[in-house]
Design brief:
Blueprint: E1 4-8, E2 13-18, E3 27-28, H1 30-46, E4 52-57, E5 65-66, H2 68-77, H3 79-97, E6 103-107, E7 111-112, H4 114-121, E8 124-128, E9 135-136, H5 150-158, H6 160-169, E10 172-173, H7 175-181, E11 186-188, H8 191-204, H9 230-244, H10 249-261, H11 266-281, H12 284-301, E12 317-321, H13 325-335, E13 340-344, H14 348-368, H15 373-380, E14 383-386, E15 397-400, H16 406-417, E16 425-428, H17 435-438, E17 448-453, E18 462-467, H18 473-485, E19 489-494, H19 501-505, H20 507-517, H21 522-531, H22 538-545, H23 547-564, H24 573-584, E20 597-599, E21 605-607, H25 610-615, H26 623-643, H27 650-661, H28 670-677, H29 679-693, H30 701-709
Parallel strand pairs: 2-4, 3-5, 4-6, 6-8, 7-9, 8-11, 12-13, 12-15, 13-14, 15-16, 16-17, 18-19
Antiparallel strand pairs: 1-2, 9-10, 17-18, 20-21
Helix pairs in contact: 1-3, 2-3, 3-11, 5-6, 6-10, 9-10, 10-11, 12-27, 13-14, 20-22, 20-24, 20-26, 21-26, 23-24, 26-28, 26-30
């Protein structure tokens, strides 16, 4: 066989080693189906003489799951094709578990999704105790559900209460965790020990069957109406809705599938699972998640947005200028990945406090048992607080994280660059200031670029890399490598006022403020902002960021428009106007205890009643118009960025919009939103919004050509 090896050893045990031809990983596609059919034919022909079967992998992992391209192909072919495919997989796995001889899954590495469904169809599972291996069902993250019996078997093995968190949250377990949960039966120190243990188990269990095939079997914990399940089953729907807001249907459908599956027999439960899978398969959310959060994310992870510079570098030592909120976060992110950090501030006390921030976070990990004190001490030893510029001399990378002030940044660039090695990179952490303008202070502008981190750095898993006009490919590639080295996702954009993320996201609070000025009830504005899938409403965003800071940024960009030419500040002028109004009323935001909201000492908050006096709030506007104004405003600005060359690749915009500012994940990002909506339908809706509310909803035609041409 091309995609597997079939051997019968001296103990008359068949060893099936899956090794997909010309594939780095074993995945479930048409070739896999054909290979399994061949394997089963051999096993069924020889089962009278075989003592048992061991299924393992010839690769570093077991089976990575379904081929996502196959899922998209099934979606294009229609629900009947999807049902036929998964029913075929189900039939194969049923033949394994009813083979009449013991079948062992020897998990030499990661087994996810369909790969773990194969393991569950075996009578015994033994895994190599490799802490890098992962087991579980990540399908919920792709908008689908485990459809080869994963829900039915896991619930029958573990019970509802133990299986549902794994299924609805897509948790991936280490071998030790899988053993503790009961998904894996035994662990081995290495592959040889695993294979030996599999043989031993087969010889000791010649009549092995699945638990649910045995007389007297009952599902652990009982059905959904059992006393021990009722409290959890009554809470699961609300818990899921709180996370998804009804915009990501897979978790809800997994819950209903699991609940229904325990009310009926095995075969009927399998049919329920198939039907629910096919309904999810045809949801546009599924395609959006697969194209963006899987395919495009994998492209970025594999370096598709990185310049073609051969040598992949590692930063040994990074200098961070400024130990404030951003600087201390960057220092923490670097040190936890083994990079030595020089944390420089004008005050040693502030620099030490920046290191203390890392100590606080790591200390909590020790308390939770997720990190040892020895590891904490080793990490903290990598951070060197200082006030001496000379300590930066041998750094590979400098990241300046001081106030958004052009003269200050230029002065620092000029002073520090003179100390550095010729090949050192200088990066500025800025959200809007032009990189090429700041690069005029550098003697080596080819080694200068922007690294836009997001707050809080320890929780935000993205960095926007901004290439200046003179930034070299080598510099850009090394910055890309550093971002991946600290385990964050890099997106690459070109220098332009506001770059991409800040420019697009600023449209959200600005449109919220425009709605407020138009007399729309602020409760509607906030709730509909969350209803479309944004993390918080547009007014709350301004409170969180602090309106006095937003106002300073707007004034800086207004001055830059006058100096450089351009109209960037005018794109969010109403936000600037209302920030001024709120600051004049002594309401700059949450940190002050009052902004658009009043904040109570116990953490509660309520919209400020004074908004009614300032803005009214009684205008009747179609709810869909409010939703679309908030959503389309961001998307149209993203299309302008694409048209103006701020972005070279759609993937950077899609991933950036989701990870950087919480654009609704179910849409697949700003550009996938347009594709899913339909380009012609999107244009027509923009025309309606443009006629009713203004030119800001008029998208550039050139961007649509790009959306149509890119796969």
């Amino acid at each position: 066989m091309r995609d597997a090896k079939f051997d019968v050893n001296q103990k008359n045990i068949a060893v099936v080693t899956i090794d997909m031809h010309d594939r780095p990983l074993n995945v479930m596609n048409d070739d896999y189906v054909s290979m399994i059919d061949e394997v089963l034919a051999k096993l069924e022909a020889g089962r009278e003489t075989l003592k048992g079967v061991i299924i393992t992998s010839g690769k570093d992992t077991f089976i990575a799951g379904g081929d996502v391209q196959k899922i998209l192909d099934l979606r294009a072919a229609g629900p009947e094709a999807g049902c036929a495919f998964v029913d075929g997989l189900k039939s194969q796995l049923r033949r394994f578990e009813r083979l009449g001889i013991p079948v062992v899954a020897a998990l030499n590495g990661t087994a996810l999704g369909g790969g773990f469904e194969l393991a569950l169809a075996c009578h015994y599972r033994i895994a190599v105790d490799n802490p890098k291996a992962r087991f579980g069902f990540p399908e919920v993250g792709l908008g689908i559900l485990p459809a080869s019996g994963g829900i039915v078997r896991s619930v029958r093995l573990l019970g509802l209460m133990n299986a549902l968190p794994l299924l609805t949250e897509g948790k991936q377990l280490t071998p030790q965790e899988a053993l503790g949960q009961g998904l894996v039966d035994a662990l081995a120190v290495d592959r040889d020990a695993m294979m030996a243990a599999a043989e031993t188990w087969i010889l000791a269990n010649p009549t092995a069957t699945q638990p649910w095939e045995r007389k007297g079997y009952s599902i652990p914990g009982g059905d959904m109406f059992a006393a021990e399940n009722l409290p959890g089953m009554s809470m699961f729907p609300s818990m899921i809705f709180k996370k998804t807001r009804g915009l990501l249907p897979a978790a809800e459908r997994i819950l209903s599938t699991a609940a229904e599956s325990v009310q009926t027999g095995f075969d009927a439960a399998m049919a329920i699972e198939t039907g629910n899978f096919c309904e999810l398969l045809m949801s546009p959310v599924t395609e959006n998640l697969i194209r963006t959060m899987f395919l495009q994310m994998n492209e970025i992870s594999s370096g598709a947005s990185r310049p073609e510079v051969k040598d992949k570098g590692k930063v040994r030592k990074v200098g961070v200028l400024g130990a404030g909120m951003m600087g201390r976060g960057i220092a923490f992110a670097s040190a936890t990945c083994g990079i030595e950090v020089v944390l420089k501030d004008i005050s040693l006390e502030v620099a030490e406090k920046g290191k203390g921030y890392a100590a606080d976070i790591l200390g909590k990990r020790v308390t939770r048992g997720s990190m040892t004190q020895e590891k904490v001490d080793a990490t903290l030893a990598l951070i060197h607080p200082t006030v001496d510029m000379a300590d930066l001399a041998d750094c590979d990378l400098i990241i300046e994280a001081v106030f958004e002030d052009i003269p200050l940044k230029k002065a620092i660039i000029s002073e520090v660059e003179a100390l550095l090695k010729p090949d050192a990179i200088f990066a500025t952490n800025t959200s809007t200031l032009p990189i090429s303008l700041l690069a005029t202070a550098a003697k080596r502008p080819g080694n200068f670029l922007g690294l836009h981190f997001f707050s809080p750095v320890d929780k935000m898993h993205i960095v926007e890399i901004i290439s200046g006009k003179e930034t070299s490919d080598s510099c850009l590639a090394r910055a890309y490598d550093y971002v991946q080295q600290i385990k964050k996702t890099p997106i690459v954009v070109n220098d332009h006022r506001g770059f991409f993320t800040s420019r697009v996201f600023s449209m959200y609070p600005d449109e919220g403020d425009r709605l407020l000025k138009d007399g729309v009830n602020p409760v509607l504005i906030e709730n509909l902002g969350k209803e479309i899938g944004m993390p918080v409403g547009p007014l709350a965003v301004q409170d969180e960021v602090m309106m006095d800071m937003l106002l300073r940024s707007h004034k800086t960009n207004t001055a830059l428009d006058q100096e450089l030419g351009g109209t960037y500040a005018s794109t969010y002028a109403v936000c600037g106007e209302l920030c001024q109004t709120m600051c004049d009323n002594g309401r700059p935001g949450r940190a002050a205890g009052r902004g658009f909201y009043d904040y109570a000492p116990d953490g509660g908050k309520a919209l400020w009643p004074g908004l009614a006096e300032l803005f009214g709030g009684t205008r009747d506007m179609p709810l869909q118009d409010i939703r679309d104004r908030l959503m389309f405003r961001m998307v149209v600005e993203a299309l302008r960025c694409l048209d103006e060359g701020v972005l070279d690749e759609l993937r950077d915009g899609n991933i950036g919009s989701i990870l950087a500012f919480g654009f609704p994940v179910h849409t697949g990002g700003v550009f996938q939103f347009v594709r899913s909506y339909g380009i012609d339908a999107f244009k027509a809706r923009c025309k309606e919004l443009n006629a009713a509310y203004g030119e800001r909803f008029n998208p550039p035609e050139g961007a649509f050509q790009r959306l149509s041409s890119d796969s």
